Amino acid sequence: MARSEALGIKRLEDITFVVNDIERSTRFYTGNLDFALTAESGNALEARSGERTRVFEADRCRVTVVQPLSPTSIAGRYLKRHPDGITTLVFEVADVAETFRVLESRGATIVDDIAWSTRGMGPAKDGEASTVGRLGWFDITTPFGEGRFRFLQRSDWTGPNPGLESRLRHPAEGLEPVTAPATTNRFGFEQYDHVTSNFLTLKPMVLWCKEVLGLEEYWDIEFHTDSDDKTATSGHGSGLKSIVLWDPHSGVKFANNEPKRPHFESSQIYGFVVDNLGEGFQHAAITTPDIIGTVRSLRERGVTFMPTPGSYYDLLPKRMLDLGVGVIDEDVEVLRGLQILVDGKGPGSYLLQIFLKEAAGLYGDDKAGPFFFEVIQRKGDKGFGGGNFRALFESIEHEQKKHRTAG
Hints:
With 407 residues, the chain is of the alpha+beta class. It has 2 domains: 3-177, Roll (2,3-Dihydroxybiphenyl 1,2-Dioxygenase, domain 1); 192-406, 2,3-Dihydroxybiphenyl 1,2-Dioxygenase, domain 1. It contains 12 helices and 17 strands. The chain has a 9-stranded mixed β-sheet with strand order 6-7-8-5-1-4-3-2-9. It is globular. Residues 120-125, 158-173 and 228-233 have low confidence and may be disordered.
């Protein structure tokens, strides 16, 4: 795809969740993750939409949470088909009209024409007209389950909660400011690094991302936990094929997985699709400049993470040498205590990552769904922790089996 035909994406700025219990989500984002509650729906919007909406922000990360008040609302109908989950990814773009033109020319399924909202920015000065901020956006459907992508552009749009109207079907009214967006977060959260999704087959999604979005392949891996057992007869192994696609202009990345034979239905990717009642978004990664401080503080707040076996850290120094990374800056025993994973390739180039428990495990409620967050610190490595996939797989499988046994 020609670089001149880029979509003009600047960043992934918002993920929109539909949930059964917005009060529980509020406690999690504000109490556990130190996101600021920046806006919420007013009475008029709730009466009109049959939904309650709250917006949470931490630096450049925004989460919009929607709970149905009516079973016939859009959110209510979604929850009849699925547990809690992401329904929309919101991307800021440089020129929404150009993004619309390019996507339409590539055959994207566009939900509606561009919607525009304007707002005066104060009185006129010295005979000049007052400044008017404009916000434009539109949605497209995607192969990511029922997920939609929203593209929005801001022009001189200011105020305590810029762009909140972009979440509304009737953008001129409804969401009311609560606090100004926080520019910092006590845990050091910065921005979204990538979003990972699970499918039963990758090919349609990959073709769509390339042909419609103009994305390029960035990274891939495939493996099976039975790989050490050449006969693969245990019946308990799990595997995946993963392809990462990216927009080289903005750096926005999508990691995507499908199950791998043998034992296709034993894969945790297949398990996600079963638990989610469909394909969709599995996790979102948030960057931090100091993952040790972040994880230590989150654990003190009561946040729980996917467990990592102690043997992982026994082998870590040798694995770093085998990967050519060499000696890392962090104390392995500190990483062991916090259960932070490490991966990399090449001298001094590595990343550190950790995965929160699935929402169902965090809340002890299957209706909360299989989504989870990742926390990541990159120290030169631009990969996706391929060497950690096996450890992550085993942890997720353990959680899935535990919930199914309990159920």
